[in-house]
Amino acid sequence: MPSLLVDEIGLLVTNEPELAELERAALVVEDGRVAWAGPAAAAPDADERVGVGGRCVIPGFVDSHAHLVFAGDRSEEFAARSSGRSYEAGGIRTTVAATRAADDAQLKANVARLVAEMQSQGTTTVEIKSGYGLTVEDERRSLAVAQEFTDETTFLGAHVVAPEFGDNPDDYVALVAGAMLDACAAHARWIDVFCERGAFDEEQSRAVLVAGLARGLAARVHANQLGPGPGVRLACELGAASADHCTHLDDGDVSALADSGTVATLLPGAEFSTRSPYPDARRLLDAGVTVALATDCNPGSSYTTSMPFCIALAVREMGMTPAEALWSATMGGARALRRDDVGRLGPGARADFAVLDAPSYVHLAYRPGVFLVEGTWKDGVKLASLGRRSPTS
């Protein structure tokens, strides 16, 4: 594979260290990886060259929380919330029924559509969860579909109690931690649980996570979204890579996150959709907690594939600076997935990056809702774009 010089970069964000920025910069790509990054005037020769016309180049977004394997539509539920109905976990069962009724080809086509949307908006790494099947076979096939699009697959059989289990949640937990895990473990890297009222309590969540850890899966937890609860501290206790949502935290939760190294993954698209309070990112950052941003793309509570939209929300509603929000959407996401090869643009990293039709990444928040990604590159190859370019001024 010929080497490639990416030249005429007006502003390059490398995230090495933190949100390092270089003006008038260049990148050299070899075999899908960054071989060199630095001032354009000092760039080494390469076999091929492409200029980006003074645009800003950032690491590809790392979306570390997404529910893409589903069928059906819940726009009526969204409209009802707009009229004042509160969000509850039980709405997930609507999607479960539609997903069970869909065949593999339908599920795969929907995931392909959503991944293409993500890539056109600068996302180069995405985690995909199961959780809308809730039978042994439907969870297994959901993960098999997800595996066709990413290595970051998460078994979320413990999303809600399957409807046929009625008032017997412990029986369902036994199934998730037993036969369902047996069928799904080979297709997953992670195990997750919705530790929340209306879903699973602390001991049920612990049983699921411990079973997954024993099978070699790493843990992540849906925690403290709908109200205060044990999810964040359980995630920290079990060494989970991330606790996701983190909307309702007390001082003990924040201290546990800071002391454990578990990443707090914030999902502002969910608060936007459900009209709920936004998490306080400023409080977490000031306490030394590592923060990630992700879309939580799902049909019920955050039907967006746009990381730029989430960055704009984080800056407007969660107390983050544009620099902090970009880092959290790139390197923060990589930390939440325990990856060191994505989320940055230094030597050895994957050549995954987005070219913004703007002079600075600040425009991601400064111009919300405007399609600013001129091109997305993965492993040094430019991907097809679904969007239209916008002017730089």
Describe the structure.
- The chain has 393 residues and is an alpha/beta fold.
- The protein has two domains: 4-59 and 343-382, Urease, subunit C, domain 1, CATH 2.30.40.10; 62-336, TIM Barrel, CATH 3.20.20.
- It is built from 13 helices and 17 strands.
- It has helices at 75-82, 92-101, 104-120, 136-147, 169-184, 202-214, 231-237, 251-260, 268-274, 281-286, 307-317, 322-336, 363-366; strands at residues 4-13, 21-30, 33-39, 48-51, 56-59, 61-63, 123-126, 128-129, 153-158, 190-195, 218-223, 242-245, 263-266, 291-293, 353-356, 373-378, 381-382.
- The strands form three sheets. Strands 1, 2, 3, 4, 5, 15, 16 and 17 form an eight-stranded mixed beta sheet that branches.
- Helix 6 (202-214) links the parallel strand 10 and strand 11 (218-223).
- Helix 3 (104-120) packs across helix 4, helix 4 packs across helix 5 and helix 5 runs parallel beside helix 6 (202-214).
- The two termini are 36 Å apart.
- The relative contact order is 0.16.
- Mean pLDDT is 94; it is low at 388-393.
List the helices and strands and how they pair.
Layout: E1 4-13, E2 21-30, E3 33-39, E4 48-51, E5 56-59, E6 61-63, H1 75-82, H2 92-101, H3 104-120, E7 123-126, E8 128-129, H4 136-147, E9 153-158, H5 169-184, E10 190-195, H6 202-214, E11 218-223, H7 231-237, E12 242-245, H8 251-260, E13 263-266, H9 268-274, H10 281-286, E14 291-293, H11 307-317, H12 322-336, E15 353-356, H13 363-366, E16 373-378, E17 381-382
Parallel strand pairs: 1-4, 1-5, 6-7, 8-9, 9-10, 10-11, 11-12, 12-13, 13-14
Antiparallel strand pairs: 1-2, 2-3, 5-15, 15-16, 16-17
Helix pairs in contact: 3-4, 4-5, 5-6, 7-8, 11-12
